[in-house]
Amino acid sequence: LRLECLGQDRVVGGLGQPGFERTLLIRRERAVEALKGPDAKARAEAARALGVMGEGARAALPALVEVLRDSDGLVRVRAAVALGRVGGSWEPALPVLLAPWMIAAGATLV
């Protein structure tokens, strides 16, 4: 499994392999911290990385939901996609994912 987080690539073994859970925990914590940072690129990459982690990043669900209101569109979209991959409800992500179509149709976003 390849986990890419904040520009650091590392190949680790699968679940049950020595060190896997600890590596995943450290990367998840780093990604959650990066979601709160000032750099939009880092926030977007952190959201993407959490999505790559899948269900191993379930503890990050509240942080991903919070980032759905980010000022940067790419951050919002990556958080929405990650939310689904991590196993959260798609409901909070729907406005983010549907916004481009609503704008194209001339709808007013609330």
Structure description:
The chain has 110 residues and is mainly α. The protein is built from five helices and two strands; from the N terminus they run E-E-H-H-H-H-H. The protein has helices at residues 20-35, 40-53, 61-67, 73-86, 94-104; strands at 2-5, 8-11. Strands 1-2 form a two-stranded antiparallel sheet. Helix 2 runs parallel beside helix 4 (73-86) and helix 3 (61-67) runs antiparallel to helix 4.
Strand content: 5-15%
Would you count the extended β strands for me?
2
Structural class: mainly alpha
Task: Work out the radius of gyration.
Answer: 15 Å
What's the short story on this structure?
The chain is mainly alpha-helical and 110 residues long.
For the structure shown, list the relevant keywords.
110 residues, 5 helices, mainly alpha, 56% helix, globular, disordered N terminus
Question: Secondary-structure blueprint of this entry?
Answer:
Blueprint: E1 2-5, E2 8-11, H1 20-35, H2 40-53, H3 61-67, H4 73-86, H5 94-104
Antiparallel strand pairs: 1-2
Helix pairs in contact: 1-2, 2-4, 3-4
